[in-house]
Amino acid sequence: MSAPPNTDVSVRLELNGDDRTVQVRAGELLLETLRERLDCTSVRGSCGIGVCGTCTVQLDGRAVSSCLMLTQQVEGRAVRTSEGLCAGGELDEVQQAFVDHEAYQCSFCIPGMVMTLRALKDEEPDADTERAREVLAGNLCRCGTYPWVLHAAMDLFEPENQR
Question: Which residue, 111, 124, 127, 150, has most beta carbons within 10 Å?
Answer without folding.
Answer: 111
